[in-house]
Specification:
Number of strands: 22
Oligomer: single chain
Largest sheet: 6 strands, antiparallel, barrel
Order of helices and strands: HHEEEEEEEHHHEEEEEEEEEEEEEEE
Shape: rod-shaped
Distance between the termini: 82 Å
Strand content: 25-35%
Radius of gyration: 52 Å
Number of domains: 3
Helix content: 25-40%
CATH superfamily of the largest domain: Efflux pump adaptor protein, beta barrel domain
């Protein structure tokens, strides 16, 4: 009976164990952690995304006009034939460097050379005749001089009259004048345009000029660009034989749209790169602006001088040109991509103010390649938000 009473008492009033207390504590901790994580997740989901903002800074900004052009030498003379004939020699090839006066092409000159020989022979014959006439005139002068001396002696003795003396003096004077004229003709310096010697000299010069026309020479130091004729070819007057690029200053030529005319100015600096060598660039300056716009294309020709042309440049090579048309030092600038309604009359941006995206209308200055000058609407240090952010949205900035 005692044992039964004791056992019954234990079942009614059980004592708590250490294990059950620890389990309840663990469950309470787990529930608390889960609740905290859930709350943190809810808060995290309600927070705005972090965005990268650009800071308004002061720096130099420049606007460049981008054009495509070509390399052009100082001049490209096209040397042609001035007489008809057959080509005998072509002494140069494409790429050759030639000097002033160097013979490039020779046309058959047999007929012209024969004309020179004939003209010179005629000149020699005419000069011989002139010298013979001069010698004859000299003999006449000697005779009239003797006659005049004798006449003066006789007149002094009273043997002849005054009229006879005057006739002798006149004959001597006429003979001397004729001798001077004959000597002048013999020397080829006569003033009469139809004098035989003058005509003969002119014929020689004409024949020599015909020979010169059979020789095509370089007008100045140059590079041969094109050889358009070969030995044996028959050529006609006006036919192009050789094309040259004269040595000297190199130009780059481009055509700008007329809407850019107000921005272009003489002396503007430019950076040029050849399409064949894009990693290399060289300096140039605007040296000439066409006085008129091409009405068919609406473009203006622009020529740029290249003070130090690189060795790899070739005539007609395609180049990319960046002409600096405006520059400002220490201007307020932002990335151009952050502008909104940039093409309208009221461009604007979003800036971060107290965690909100706030609109700011701006006034623009120089539109650079990747940056734009801000004349009004922003201050240095303002944080401008990217285009993905909407006006009025809550924002958190990335650090």
């Amino acid at each position: 009976m005692r044992e039964s009473a004791i056992g019954s008492h234990e079942e009614v009033n059980p004592l708590p164990t250490v294990g059950s207390s620890v389990g309840r504590t663990r469950r309470w901790i787990l529930v608390s952690l889960a609740t905290a994580l859930a709350l943190a997740l809810i808060v995290w989901r309600t927070l705005p995304d972090r965005v990268a903002a650009a800071t308004v800074v002061r720096k130099d900004v420049a606007r460049t006009l981008v054009l495509t052009g070509r390399v052009r030498p100082q001049a490209r003379p096209q040397l042609g034939a001035t007489i008809a004939g057959t080509v005998r020699e072509v002494l140069v090839r494409e790429g050759d460097q030639v000097s002033r006066g160097q013979l490039l092409v020779r046309i058959d000159d047999a007929q012209s050379a024969a004309g020179v020989v004939q003209a010179r022979a005629a000149l020699a014959e005419t000069q011989a005749d002139a010298r013979a006439s001069a010698e004859q005139a000299g003999l006449v002068v000697k005779q009239t001089t003797r006659d005049l001396t004798r006449a003066r002696t006789l007149h002094a003795a009273g043997a002849i009259s005054d009229r006879d003396l005057e006739a002798a003096e006149k004959a001597d004077a006429d003979a001397r004048s004729a001798s001077i004229a004959a000597n002048t003709r013999a020397e080829g310096d006569g003033s009469a345009p139809l004098a035989k010697v003058a005509r003969a000299r002119g014929a020689v010069q004409l024949a020599e000029a015909q020979v010169a026309l059979t020789r095509v020479t370089a007008p100045a130091a140059a590079t041969v660009l094109a050889r358009k004729v070969e030995p044996g070819d028959a050529v006609l007057p006006g036919q192009m034989l050789i094309e040259l690029a004269l040595a000297g200053s190199t130009e780059v030529v481009a055509f700008a749209s007329e809407e850019n005319l107000a921005e272009l100015r003489m002396g503007a600096a430019a950076v040029v790169s050849a399409d064949a060598f894009p990693a290399q660039s060289f300096a140039a300056r605007v040296a000439w602006l066409a006085p008129a716009v091409d009405p068919a294309k609406g473009t203006l020709e622009v020529r740029l001088a290249v003070p130090v042309p690189p060795s790899y440049l070739r005539p007609d090579m395609t180049v990319s040109i960046n002409i600096e048309v405006a520059r400002r030092s220490k201007a307020l600038v932002i990335p151009r991509a952050l502008l909104r309604d940039a093409g309208s009359g009221t461009p604007w941006v979003l800036v971060e103010i107290d965690g909100r995206a706030v609109r700011r209308d701006v006034r623009l200055g120089i539109l650079g390649e990747g940056e734009v000058e801000i004349l009004a609407g922003l201050a240095e240090g303002d944080r401008v938000l990217p285009a993905a952010v909407k006006q009025g949205a809550r924002v958190r900035l990335r650090r």
